Predict the structure.
Amino acid sequence: MNFVEKRKDLAESEAIGVSRAEAGSPAEPKRGWVKRHYAWIGTCASVLLLAASAVVLWKLSEEITWAKLGAALTGVGGMQLGIAFGFVAISYFFLTFYDALALKQLKLKMPYRITALASFTSYAVSFTLGFPLFTAGTIRYWVYSSRGLSAAKIAALTVIAGFTFWLGMGVVLGLSLIVEAGQLAGLAFTSIRVNQGVGVAALFSVVGYLIWVSIKRRYITVKHWRLELPGATVSFSQMLVGIGDVCAAAAVLYVLMPPELTLGFSTFVAIYVLAAMLGIASNVPGGAGVFEATIMLAMSSLPRDEVLGSLLLFRVCYYLVPFLVALAMLGIYEVAKRLRRRRAANDP
């Protein structure tokens, strides 16, 4: 996956930590052959996952009527919605630091208001529309390019920001699976040892990565380019930011769940992370269908109409409302930018 566009000169590439890797490797043709012949596996896996989730969701929703669903949606109180939107704000606040930490790694200075605008709008739009490399990348370019950042710098920023998400997910999933291994065994139809093993593996992966990047400078190679990975200090900060984001997002749905829910938050977070990861694997915008099927399957002891109502409200609170706010903010930003240009052109 080519995240970094071709540079026009060596000076710019050195400024952002991206340098030319050795080309003409004898292994390159072999890697290309493997990529061409096995690229379909990921696509088939995503299609099968989506199809299986659709069947599960259909089966679980057979007993739900529009009347029950409407009652579940209207049964949520104003206090619940207020707390849910509060966690939405906290989650998106953490998301703004994804870009802030990436800019720090690239040694680029940017006012926080611009960083927050680019980060919030890019994630809010990509969460809803999908195709994050295109949608989020386009919005970041729209905002950051007017501040002097090149396409290569913005692409590098996008790659580094992605590490923040996965570091947070890894820690939250690992701790939840270890602490709540017994309760999750019944909900996820697994065993305690399997849950603990996966949890330990997840934590070891994160700790191993932190140790790996702390020993010396590390790079990822994308075709002919190399990108320097964040060191231990920035990576640890990324991990904390990712944890905050994931927990706040899970709290949005947790608050909206039916009152019959008796699960502790740590158990619920593990289910949420698993559902989110399956949704990402499906390549569907927002994991639609896959996410819902996983949550409903794990929450099968609760009234299905109420669980589905909670999931629909979660979509509205966490995806639709921020999406509309992001579109409004981008519109205001564009109008303000044009007005500044017009005033600058009219000044003597």
Observations:
- DSSP finds 13 helices and three strands in the chain.
- Residues 1-28 have pLDDT under 50 and may be disordered.
- Strands lie at 18-20, 219-222, 225-228.
- Residues 79-342 form one domain.
